[in-house]
Amino acid sequence: MGLRSAGAIEGQPTPLVPAQAPGSGDPAASPPPAGSSATRGAPEGALSQAELDLLSFFLDDGAAGGELDSLGRWLRDFEDRATAVGLSLNRGKCRLSVAPGATIPEALQGIETCPLDEIQHLGVPCGSPEKMRVFVDEEAVKGAERKMRMIASLPDAHVALTLLKFCAGFVSVVHLMRAVGAVFDFACIDQATQSCLATITGIETDASAWALASLPVRLGGLGLHSCADTAAIAHIAATFDGEACLPSLVTPYVLPHAMLLDEDDTFLASLDDPRLAPFETVLEKIQNALQARDNYGGRGQKVWSATVHDERRKALIISMTEELGRSGQLQGSALALKQVQVRARIQSCSGQHASAWLYGNAEADPKLWLSPAELAVAIRLRLGLPIAPMPSICRLCGTGSADVDGVHARSCFSGGRRTRMHNALRDVIADFARRGLLAPAVERPVFSNTERKRPDISYVRDGTTVVLDVAVTFPLQPSNPQYAKRAAEKPGGAATAYATAVKEGKYRGIIDNEPNPREWLAVPLVVDTFGAWCPGALTELRQIARKSALREDRTASAACQDFFHQLSFQ
């Protein structure tokens, strides 16, 4: 049903609240939601449930159901009340569903009817399982695949990847998954997403790489969530949330006869989904929530999905390290080091703001988007895939072997790349400090007892002289396996180890000899080549972002996002 204002420009009606009928009960018609622009100011009781069995709304969609005569009286009353506040009803946007052979009363004449099997509400089929299956296969799945083909055809790979993450795949069918659950196989959406990723980046992912890509960004993945692995949880959470709303949607007469959770076949099928069987912790949380009738404040899907993702990552790391042993290509200490490096890589990619480069910022400088070749290499490094078909001699140092995994390429000191990266990071940090009116000094002597030590950046903040020392470390460098071990323990572990071993003692003695050592603060800003910062650096960089936000009249979170986005491209 839709409402249109009576006095639109040039006599053209203005649509306000489109809606369609639900799939249960007799006919369905719907008013606008309470409190919307279409009903604000209407007489009290205009949306009264009256004799209806069902009256529900979600944003601008609504549904009403009951006996035909009751529904006709309610609809006529609603039209009268709408007219009283200058609105008129557009019956062309109404849908009426009735049982076969039913006589439609005069009050409902002129409304288009549709079979019970073909009812859709909020983009979800509500008819028979057969019709629902046809809808999922022919409309939802094919629509999602068509959208991904369009995205994959874009010339800008980085833009295409961003659209794939936020506009297609999982996000385009999550509402449908919440409605129909695991009774339908959404694996075809995952296959289409994997194919789209391959077209965009030119990377054919194997099973392990795709399993990693489907993990959230916070866990080192690409955030291309698996629909097949999430459908059951999505439906369980949605059904559980909906049960709490039943008293406000149906009349007391209908409520005792409403379908209970233990009688809902689709809900029970989702609980028994074999994809959930390995995750005993999640199943236990779901059962506890059902017994306590605690839906986590509507956050059940987020909570349970996060647990599944955490357990999937643990299992994936074990699987990847065991696969290295079964391959027989590495033995002894070389195998042990490689297994540690796998864990270190995933942990480092999981660091806070380590993935700021992954999905572009529409408001950022156009230079802060990767070219197709750069994006392909970055994705390969993140997923642990080779970046070259075979090893070669390093063109910079002329002595090292440039391995296919890019280990030597990121640890070679020749060519000045490390220095340029260091200086670029320093300049971005100094620029944001300048925008925050911290008046930073770049590589100038600030200590009273020596001029030999010149910190990268120094400024005075709240009466304390802060000296910053920027450094970049590679957590997988073969010459220092301790960094890989520390990186494998937690995100930013390699950066923290480097800051502790190299940077923290660099200024300690100098500051202790200052007249007021308590008025000084030395902060190592250490980041590894996967983007993970040491904790002290994160704290200080956020302070700088907040200072700039105050001066530029924007939120601290927006400034922080912009700051780390720029840093990730240096």
Quote the distance from N terminus to C terminus: 54 Å
Helix content: 40-55%
Strand count, sense and barrel status of the largest sheet are: 4 strands, mixed
Structural class call reads: alpha+beta
What's the number of extended β-strand segments?
13
Kindly report the oligomeric state of this protein.
Answer: single chain
- In terms of DSSP E residues, the strand content is 5-15%
Q: Estimate the mean pLDDT confidence.
A: 83
Q: Tally the helices.
A: 19
Poorly predicted runs: 1-48
Computed over alpha carbons, the radius of gyration is 30 Å
Arrangement of strands in the largest sheet: 10-11-12-13
Overall spatial form: elongated
Q: What's the SSE blueprint?
A:
Blueprint: E1 2-5, E2 28-29, E3 54-58, E4 61-65, H1 68-84, E5 87-90, E6 120-121, E7 124-125, H2 129-152, H3 157-167, H4 170-180, H5 187-201, H6 207-213, H7 227-249, H8 265-271, H9 280-292, H10 300-327, H11 332-349, H12 372-383, E8 392-393, E9 401-402, H13 407-411, H14 417-435, E10 441-442, E11 457-461, E12 464-473, H15 481-489, H16 493-503, H17 508-512, E13 520-528, H18 535-552, H19 556-568
Parallel strand pairs: 12-13
Antiparallel strand pairs: 1-5, 2-4, 3-4, 6-7, 8-9, 10-11, 11-12
Helix pairs in contact: 2-4, 2-5, 3-5, 4-7, 7-8, 7-10, 9-10, 10-11, 11-15, 14-18, 15-16, 18-19
Question: What do these coordinates show?
Answer:
By secondary structure, this protein is an alpha+beta fold. Helices cover 47% and strands 9% of the residues. The chain contains 19 helices and 13 strands. The chain has helices at residues 68-84, 129-152, 157-167, 170-180, 187-201, 207-213, 227-249, 265-271, 280-292, 300-327, 332-349, 372-383, 407-411, 417-435, 481-489, 493-503, 508-512, 535-552, 556-568, and strands at 2-5, 28-29, 54-58, 61-65, 87-90, 120-121, 124-125, 392-393, 401-402, 441-442, 457-461, 464-473, 520-528. The strands form 5 sheets. It has a 4-stranded mixed sheet. The protein has a 3-stranded antiparallel sheet with strand order 2-4-3, with helices on one face. It has a two-stranded antiparallel ribbon with strand order 1-5. Strand 6 and strand 7 (124-125) form a beta hairpin. The longest helix is centred in the middle third of the chain and has 28 residues, at 300-327. The radius of gyration is 30 Å and the shape is elongated. Residues 1-48 have low confidence and may be disordered.
